[in-house]
Amino acid sequence: MKYAIITGASRGMGEAIAKRMLEEQIAVVSVSRTENEEIRQLALENGLFYKHYSCNLSLEKEIQEVFMEIAHCIYQKKPNQIYLFNNAGVIEPIETVGNLDQTPIIRNIQVNLIAPILITNIFLNKGSLAGTTVHAINITSGAATRSIEGWSVYCSAKAGLNMFTQTTALELAEMKTNNKIIAFSPGIMDTKMQETIRSSSKGAFKELEKFIDYKEKSKLQKTEVVANALVDLVLNGSAESGKIYHVSDLLN
Ligand SMILES: NC(=O)c1ccc[n+]([C@@H]2O[C@H](COP(=O)([O-])OP(=O)(O)OC[C@H]3O[C@@H](n4cnc5c(N)ncnc54)[C@H](OP(=O)(O)O)[C@@H]3O)[C@@H](O)[C@H]2O)c1
């Protein structure tokens, strides 16, 4: 049996990934602070394994407890393949350096960078003991390689996630297992994260008008389109470990 563990499946891109995985008859474990009832219903209708774990990914103690429990639950089912989608993310704080508050800085780095590192570490460790192939997919951003004024924390966290992906891939290659890790930059999508961006202030975020324009001119991609492109890549087995994919590489 194949399992997909998806953080941030309650809405946005994570929700779209979860729904597509269920359509592919792949069991889903969802992790976020709130649960998406539509995903539960879809799994029920298709007779597929689904479980939601409530977890605040900005708290490392919760991550450790919840993901050890998930690993225990899944590995006793002897899965042949685990897809680990580190998708949950936060854009805030949107503010210039010198005017940042401490708590949102720490929360951003915890959710966007520390959580994916901790979770990937747990699953690669348990996977090697159980003989299960693990494919980790880290959802990154164009902001990892483009400096965006007002997004210094988000840019730094996503840049760190890219480097974590590439370094882990080197280590996995050395171990000669079938495990893989990739990063995927989804482009601009019509989600709550974009609403948060549009509600920021011009003083804090220089590119505000450009992002308002994206919405007004319908330039934001639907999450289903982006998730389908990613899941196609992951399931067809052609993904190259260590590579940072961009949605534009996959959509014609
Ligand atoms: N939207 C874009 O244009 C865009 C562009 C580039 C990259 N991305 C990346 O794509 C990914 C998905 O973003 P999205 O646009 O779908 O965002 P979204 O609609 O805001 O959804 C974010 C998800 O992350 C979860 N999350 C946030 N903080 C959490 C926490 N402390 N603990 C647990 N879960 C938490 C949320 O769940 P709960 O609130 O239920 O906990 C939610 O399911 C992110 O990694 C983002 O950085 C998005």
UniProtKB/TrEMBL annotation:
Enzyme class at the top of the EC tree: oxidoreductase
Main location: cytoplasm
Keywords: Cytoplasm, NADP, Oxidoreductase
EC number(s) given by UniProt: 1.1.1.320
Superkingdom as given in the UniProt entry: Bacteria
Family: Belongs to the short-chain dehydrogenases/reductases (SDR) family.
Protein's name according to its UniProt entry: (S)-benzoin forming benzil reductase
Organism listed in the record: Neobacillus pocheonensis
